[in-house]
Amino acid sequence: MPTKKLTSQRFRYQYAAKFICTATIPDTSQQSSFPPGSYATAINIHNPFERSVKFRVKIAQPGQISKWLTFSLKGDEVLRLTCKEVEKFEVVTIHGFEGFMVIESLYSLDVTAVYTAAGRDTYVTSMDVEEVKERRLR
């Protein structure tokens, strides 16, 4: 759950994960550059420390950047952000979402992206798990 806003803190670490949540249906207004099917992303954020850590998250898509939401994790706790949580960022997602989820923290975190895809009338046919690269901010 989001917590109080972080103010005037200089973040040291940033993570930018590709984030896709859409269904492509041929011959409809929900057609896109993706092959027909459903696409979903889950971002897993782990606090590897014993102490609590606060961090902030935003999502960015072409022409629109969300507000920052602040989260807190206790030591060794994990947060999972999925397509269902995108609405909390108050961005327009009429035909799904394709952009980036950006995370900033004072402390190094473990951030992993899980990407799934399903064919038009099938269950998940593809899954990819990727560690999100950490970027040091000055």
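(ticket continues) Second input and output from the same batch:
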Amino acid sequence: MGAATLFFWLGRSQVSQTYKTALTITGLVTAIAFYHYLRIFNSWEASFTTTNGQLVPSGIAFNDAYRYVDWLLTVPLLLIELILVMNLSRQETVSKSFRLGGLAAIMIILGYPGEIASDPTTRWIWWGAAMVPFFFIVVELFAGLRTALEQQPKDVRGLVNTARWLTLISWSFYPVVFVFPMIGFTGGAAETAVQVGYTIADIVAKAVFGVVIYMIAVRKSEVEMSAGGGAAYAR
């Protein structure tokens, strides 16, 4: 995540002024994730100790709140960076950013009580509640942005569509991982499966998605430069 942050922020020099904010946010997302992964690692390390060559709980509870604080900050930003790189009208940008960002925040907030619950029924209830805003996000991405997609330059429509599908696929992995403890995974195997699953999903949803955003910004900058000259790259 740290390397991705450097790539995105250094890559700002490769895009026109219009898309620099999108790349700034893209780098901010991975920077926030980098910090919280350090905190997650420290908490995980403190939760276990080695006794006679065996890994045993230390008595300090693993703090999964770091991951949810990360998501509460970064998940809305992921949607906002997609809106920004599409370069919609100011009114559309503000409206869709607030709508999608708000839905994303509600989704994360609803998911946390289930994450820390040990009772399967409670976990299922909060899982179902969090899936409601997730559904509306998907509808907005594929129905609400359909007209905006058609207004994009032909050279970037495929990339924007890739960004939408990458969001859907990578985000769909989170609710699947969430139910691991409810479908037979128990003990250390369950916790490990959840943490590894979330980490893989995070890398795809943030770093890989960010590369697609970068590619869109570069391609659109090239199109604009061809149409209006090199002044678009002014810092």
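Agent notes: The radius of gyration is 20 Å. The chain has one domain: 2-50+64-233. Closing as not reproducible unless the customer responds.
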